[in-house]
Amino acid sequence: MTPDEPPQDPYGVPEAELDTGDGGPSFREQPARKVRRRYGEQEATVRSLGAAFMALSLALFFYGGVSLLTAQRFAKGPDRTPALIVTAGVIGLSLLVGFSGLGLSLLKPAGRVGAVLAGALLLLLCPCGTWLGIFALILLFSQSTSAVLSDDYRAVVAATPRERPRPSAGTRFVIWIPAVFMIFTFVLSALRFSRLGS
């Protein structure tokens, strides 16, 4: 690096990941609309996963909150501490999933860090969490996702406000079917806890 060159961000997306994948010019050297149309479906998939994570985080937070209140009221003696720790962990997981989902929806690279951790934890919630977690990890580690979460691509998005990419029907199915099932499971479980506590 010469003294005239600006310092590079060591945590940024490598320049090689910002090209078209076929040896063509980088995002900066192409028309913004062309880039947006090429990566639009990937962008829409990332945003859709982020929206699913945010919806799932609300259900987790509701479940954790009801469980925490129930544990405080009815758990006694040595049984109370483990119950409070578990429910507090669920609330913490809901915050992690929510903030990472928000980051993905805004195409922020930081959202991917939390989403990778959340996706790994979702693998433990068999079968739907495993399904969604595997899809999330494959998506988040793809080269196209790295490009979509770059500063250059966000500049492309800002330059093409009329473009509204949508995920494919198959992608929506893969993301939202397990997400909706888990949301209903957490909400119904929380309502059951609330009835037991009443």
Main traits of this protein?
7 helices, 198 residues, mainly alpha
The structural class is: mainly alpha
Distance between the termini: 67 Å
Number of helical regions = 7
Beta-strand percent range? under 5%
Shape: elongated
Extract low-pLDDT stretches. Answer: 9-25
- Report the major sheet: none
Describe this structure in words.
With 198 residues, the chain is an all-alpha fold. Helix content is 71%, strand content 0%. It contains 7 helices and no strands. Helix 1 runs antiparallel to helix 2 and helix 1 packs parallel to helix 7. The chain is elongated, with a radius of gyration of 20 Å. About 9% of the residues have low confidence.
Summary of the model, kept short:
By secondary structure, the protein is mainly α. It is built from 7 helices and no strands.
List the helices and strands and how they pair.
Layout: H1 32-74, H2 80-105, H3 109-122, H4 128-140, H5 143-148, H6 151-159, H7 169-197
